[in-house]
Structures are given as structure tokens and as C-alpha cells.
Inverse folding.
């Protein structure tokens, strides 16, 4: 018999709040689907912060991440105040994860939404902008924060967006900036969009000032395909786009760097819902599906995605999606995972 | 017979693109409604820019604005490149218009919307943040832009929001910031919100990180009442909120300073629609209604607002609101103004 392909090493963190529950559910589904993974577990988040480590991650955890180069990460909680740094942001910067890919797709009529035809991928610059974290108390009364935009940063993210569109057969890439006000910084992003875009003649190009672009996205998202934008706009508008598909709980996210990638849900750790077996594991699961494609296990990715879709189609829903009155079934996190597993079909 | 009250001097600018048409329509309605106004007209925008004045406004125009202290302004076009400065931003800064008040209300079923119960007022800080316009080319490859937040700036806008809620009987004020990342700058805004809010015990207080707040606003805007936020978030999210009421064309905006105020539509000059008699004058008209209240002509404000509402209720619509298939009538800018005027009723 032919040897089975070697499993792919990945680093996994269970996170805080609802993190452990949705990670447990996700990993059970991946295993049942036949994903070939060798899991290294690291601890991050609250526990590490409260041990006095303001970065929320142990130095040794970086070794695992640099070795496996693939990170499946549950949401974490960053304690308020006390100089704690956002681990999400640190990870993106330390590992050079310059592209944050956030597909926001409607699953109408299985997930109720006012925007049934939406299928947008937001590609968010992930290292620069106001996230540089440079803040300064100028006087007792005045604070400054620095927004940084670099040409290499713009080139990397814009090229990623066009390559993504090409590979996935997407027809249009839209750019959002506020360069009527920030002529140099957002202006640079817009200029690079025009320059790089010219190399992709087969793809339609479009630009909107971010305010009116955001308005269009919230009103008629079906007019967009791929949208590329600076970090902070991408943060805000990917939450908007994910939410209006029906639930922020079903969007996964890939953070891509040169040779390293991190996969997560786009929602947070929702501490108030922790340990209640109510959280929706779909966001992290769809992040994991992106991961499977990334590591070349597209067959498993498709099997998981199909089983997940059939679960929704069969009306099996966690509380955030469930609506009284239709014939659907209201289940907990574990039962949702079981339902997906039952729909995986026999393994090949 | 008792003497009529003296008319209030106001400064008016017809602007660019669709500006002259919607201003003409608005002023005709105000006159027919019996507004007591003494109009000083100034030129701003494209014509002035192209005369080589990078500010888009003649020095003498400031004299009029400083004298009348009330400015009804149509949208203008700022030419691309060439060091032209946004006149909107200049006006807000020179006149110290620190509060931008943007009511976003649904007029369901007369204006079709997915959010029939929405009645949100966005109160946007109007002078600080990235709008300080300080940009700097650090190297050939790196650009910086400065975000400025000051304690007096935060105090003024937050207090304005709570006073607004008190005067207009609004129950809740929500604050949006991104202080999990910008701990000092957005953190200051949030802190001042908590401090000033404590002086208004009768008003409910709430805070959301701007990404999830924006998602909630786009999804279920009816959960919000008054929302106060820094300048750039307010720019983006007031366009979102206005658009999802059914059209960005029906939202007016007040820019309030100490003793000076500017009233405008929140949409832009839409050059492609200019001179076609198709633009919706409602945004500027509702800005003018806010102006009438501001200058103490509440009776006229109500008359105009009621007539405008009746016009919508009767199904008389400009193209942006009009939907095929219902029994409504599709009219141009001038005819819409005529329809409002016919519904003013007899003057008292
Ligand atoms: C938690 C926070 C630092 C993070 C961000 O702002 O990027 C989150 O909102 C996200 O979008 O992943
Ligand atoms: C035209 C532009 C400078 C302005 C802004 O960004 O404030 C506009 O979008 C607005 O919201 O009034």
C-alpha cells in the first residue's frame, strides 16, 4: 500500500473566553474529516498576560511558530490597561503577516440576512497604518498617534489582492482610501493600487473614498468582489461585512506572510459566553478550512466546508444564527460539531 | 400691526456640481415657507480653486461668515492634486465648528429601507484626529500622518453629545473608539466620555470598540440613539448610517461651533449629476431645517419639515428614492421643490 503523506505540523492555541470550546469543536471536525496534522500546542493570552508577560505569549512559543509556519489561533482576551499589548497585532508584526484575508459570504436562506447575494473578500493590510502603535503624550492635554504607510507595504498588499483575484477567478478589485484628506499616506496606497493594478488588465479596477465606499458596502454589498484597503478601514469594514452576512460568528480569516500564515475567526473571545456551550465554532472552522487549502489539503478542506454547509442547510444552528419560527434546530457548540461530523460522509 | 421680527442674516454658498440646483430648490422652499432670512451670497469651491486660490474661498468670504455666524453651504468639488485643501475641513477648523451633528432617520415606508426603525444621531468630532492634516514624507518609501486627540477637544464634543441628548430627550449616548489599539489617543476620548457621562445620570451610557460598533450599526441600527465618536470614524459611519436609511441623499448635517454654525447636506457635489435636474435637494433642505431651529425660527422649520414629509408620503420622489413598481411619482429637483411648496399649506 502507498505510504500516507506525512502530516503537516501546525501550531495551535486554544485562547480565552469561548476560544477553548470552538477550538475543541474545530479540531474534532478536522480530525474526523481526515486532516493530516501534527499539532503543537502553545499557550497564549490571558494566562500568560497575568503571569506578568505583557506580550501575552511565551518566548518559546515563537520557536514553534517559526518551525511549523502555520498557526491556528482561537480568540484571546487582552486584559485592560497595565501596558498589555495586543497579541493579535504582535503576531502579525513579528511574523510579517502582511495580508489579512476575510471572506464575507452570505449563506442565504440557511443563514438569515438582508443581503442574500453578498460574496465579498476583504483584503486588509495587516502591519502598518495606525496599528504601528506609536503614541505619544505631547502635553498633558494633547496625544498624538502616528499613521505609517510605506510603499513596500502598499505594494505587497495590493499585489496580494490582485494575485488573489487572479487565482480565485474574481473579476473586480476595489480599493478604499481617504486620500481626499490624507493625500500623502492614503494617496500612496491609492497610487500603488493604480500602478500595480495596471499589470492585471483582465481584472476590473475601482476606487472609492472610504466613507462612501463603506456606505455602499453596508447598503448593497453584492456590488463588490475583492476589496483591498489599509489596516484600520479593513478592521472596521470587515466586521461590518461579516456581520451583515448574518452573523459575525461565521467569518474566518487568514493572516498571510512570506512563508508563515495564521488562521483565526474574525470575532473575539466573548468572555460572557464562555463555558456555556453556546458559541458558534463556524468562524474558526472556516479559518481552518482556509488553512487546509494553504497547506495543500484541499480535499479535506472541501469535505469540511461541504459538511458545514449541509449542516446549515439542514437547519442545525447555534444560538447566534437560530431564529424562532423556522423549522431549524437549536444546538450547542459540541452538538453543532457533532452534526458537522455526521455529515462528513465516509472518508475516501 | 406688530412689527415683523427682523430677518436673520445668513451666508449662502451655491457650491459645485449639483450644488446650485439643490440650493436653488432649498431657498425657494424656505422663502415660500416664510423663513425670515437676509441672504449674503459668497463664492466658494471649484471656481475659486481654479483662480489659483488653494483654499477654495476668498478672504472676503470669511468676513461674511464671521458677521452672520450662520452658513448654509452646498457641496463643493475640490480639484485633485495641486495642493488644493478641502474647504470643508478648512471651514470647520477656521470657524471652530467642533461638533458635526448628523441625524440618520428612516422614513419607512415612504423611503424604502432595510432598517425601518432607525433613528440615530451621529455626533462626530469635527476638528481633530487625522483631519489635522499633518503629513510628512519620512523617506522616499515611508509616509507619516499624525492623529491628534486633545482633552479639550474630547470634552467639547462629548459634552455636546450629552447636552444634545438632554435637550432632545434622547435616552442613550454610545461612544465608539478603537482604544484596544490606540490606548492613549482613543483611550483619552473614551476616558473623557466616562468622566463627562457621569454628570448625566439620567442618560444611558454605552461604549463599543469601533469595529464591532460599526458592525452593529450596519446590521441593527435601531439599537442606537445618539452615537459620539472621533472625526474619521464619524465620517465613515455617518455615511453608512445615512445610506442605510434609504439614501445618502436625505441626510442633512449641522456643524456647530461656539457662536458659529454651518449647515449642509452630508453627500458630495456629484458632478456627474450636475445640471440634469435629477439631484435630491432633501439633504441640504434638512440641513436648512436644522439651521432654522438654530436661528430660532422653529415654526418655519416645522412647516418645512412637515411639508417635506408629506411630499415623501405622497410618493413624490427624486430618482435616488424612486423605485419602479410602487405608485409613486418620479420627479426632478425643481418639481420636487414645487411639490414641497404646494404642501406648505397657507402661511399663518
Ligand atoms: C483584537 C484587535 C486588536 C483586532 C484588530 O484590531 O485587528 C481585531 O479587531 C481583529 O480585527 O482581528
Ligand atoms: C469632503 C470631505 C473632506 C468630508 C469629510 O471627510 O469630512 C466629507 O466626506 C464629509 O463627511 O463632510
Amino acid at each position: 500500500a502507498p505510504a500516507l503523506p506525512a502530516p503537516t505540523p501546525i501550531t495551535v492555541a486554544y485562547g480565552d473566553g469561548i476560544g477553548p470550546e470552538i477550538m475543541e469543536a474545530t479540531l474534532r471536525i478536522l480530525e474526523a474529516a481526515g486532516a493530516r496534522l501534527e499539532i503543537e500546542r502553545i499557550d497564549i493570552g490571558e494566562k500568560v498576560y497575568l503571569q506578568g508577560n505583557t506580550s501575552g505569549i511565551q518566548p518559546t512559543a515563537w520557536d514553534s511558530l517559526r518551525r511549523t509556519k502555520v498557526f491556528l489561533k482561537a480568540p484571546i482576551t487582552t486584559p485592560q490597561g497595565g501596558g498589555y499589548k495586543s497579541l493579535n497585532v504582535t503576531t502579525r508584526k513579528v511574523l510579517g503577516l502582511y495580508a489579512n484575508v476575510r471572506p464575507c459570504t452570505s449563506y442565504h436562506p440557511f443563514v438569515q440576512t438582508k443581503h442574500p447575494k453578498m460574496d465579498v473578500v476583504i483584503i486588509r493590510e495587516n502591519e502598518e497604518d495606525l496599528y504601528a502603535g506609536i503614541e505619544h503624550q505631547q502635553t498633558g492635554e494633547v496625544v498624538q498617534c502616528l499613521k505609517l504607510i510605506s510603499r513596500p507595504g502598499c505594494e505587497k498588499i495590493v499585489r496580494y489582492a490582485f494575485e488573489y483575484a487572479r487565482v480565485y477567478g474574481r473579476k473586480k478589485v476595489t480599493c478604499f482610501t481617504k486620500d481626499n484628506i490624507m493625500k500623502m499616506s492614503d494617496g500612496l496606497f491609492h497610487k500603488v493600487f493604480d500602478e500595480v493594478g495596471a499589470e492585471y488588465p483582465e481584472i476590473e479596477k475601482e476606487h472609492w473614498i472610504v466613507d462612501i465606499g463603506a456606505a455602499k458596502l453596508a447598503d448593497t454589498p453584492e456590488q463588490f468582489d475583492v476589496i483591498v484597503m489599509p489596516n484600520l478601514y479593513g478592521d472596521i469594514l470587515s466586521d461590518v461585512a461579516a456581520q451583515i452576512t448574518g452573523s459575525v460568528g461565521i467569518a474566518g480569516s487568514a493572516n498571510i506572510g512570506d512563508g508563515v500564515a495564521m488562521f483565526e475567526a474574525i470575532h473575539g473571545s466573548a468572555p460572557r459566553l464562555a463555558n456555556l456551550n453556546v458559541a458558534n465554532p463556524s468562524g474558526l472552522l472556516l479559518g481552518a478550512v482556509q488553512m487546509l487549502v494553504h497547506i495543500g489539503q484541499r480535499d479535506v478542506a472541501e469535505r469540511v466546508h461541504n459538511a458545514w454547509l449541509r449542516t446549515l442547510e439542514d437547519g442545525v444552528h447555534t444560538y447566534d444564527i437560530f431564529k424562532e419560527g423556522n423549522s431549524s434546530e437549536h444546538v450547542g457548540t459540541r452538538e453543532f460539531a457533532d452534526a458537522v461530523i455526521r455529515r462528513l460522509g465516509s472518508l475516501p
Observations:
- Residues 151-167 of chain A form the longest helix (17 residues).
- Chain A touches chain B through 53 residues (CB under 8 Å).
- DSSP finds eleven helices and 14 strands in chain A.
- Chain A has two domains: 1-102+247-348, 114-244.
